[in-house]
Structures are given as C-alpha cells and as structure tokens.
Amino acid sequence: MAALVRQAALVAGPELMPDTPSELLPFGLSAAYWLDLRAYDPVATATALARPMLILQGGRDYQVTVADDLTRWQAALRFRTRTFDRSGCSTVFRAPRTYRVRRRRALAGR
Q1: For the segment 36-89, what is each residue's pLDDT rounded down to a tens digit?
Q2: Are 57 and 66 in contact (CB under 8 A)?
Q3: What is the pTM for the complete model shown?
Q4: Contact at 8 Å (CB) between 58 and 93?
C-alpha cells in the first residue's frame, strides 16, 4: 500500500516527466498516459463538441459530487438547449421512491 501511495504522489506531483520510468508509476502505466490524463478536461472537451449529450449524475455519488462536479458541468453547458435535470436519482439512476410509487399508481389508474 505504501508503494501505491508513493506512486500516486509521483503522478500528482510536478516531478512527473515524460521519461519517468513506468515501474515507478501506478499499475506500470507510462508517464505519457498519466500526463495526458492529468491534462484532460472532460468539461472543456464537451463544450467544444456540437453534439447531443446525455450527462447523468447520481445524487448519492461520493466520488463525482453534485456540489463540485455537476455544478461545473451545468455552468459550462448552461447555454445549451434541450437540457434535462433529473436530480435525486441514485447512482444506478433510479428515480426516488416517491416518484416510482406515484408512477405505479398512475399506471394502475389510481
């Protein structure tokens, strides 16, 4: 575990260079991979695309959060038309229980 922590610190730090040996990096992946990943900005990439997009966010996702990540996506894509916000979904994107119950009742004619 200590080795992986050291490797991750190397990837995150300024000392990572294109010629850093892959043996010193997580999973034996090349420095070029980690540098490219570090420079990748999915929000900026999405704003440059003139294509329809479906962006899903689980309200209970603790790695990709509504407060930090979804708000960044919303701000960057705020001028796009035809957006859909489905707040309150779980990470498996099921509607909240109250919605499912109402929907079942509506379908049953109640």
Answers
A1: 999 999 999 988 988 888 877 777 777 878 888 888 888 888 887 665 555 555
A2: yes
A3: 0.60
A4: yes
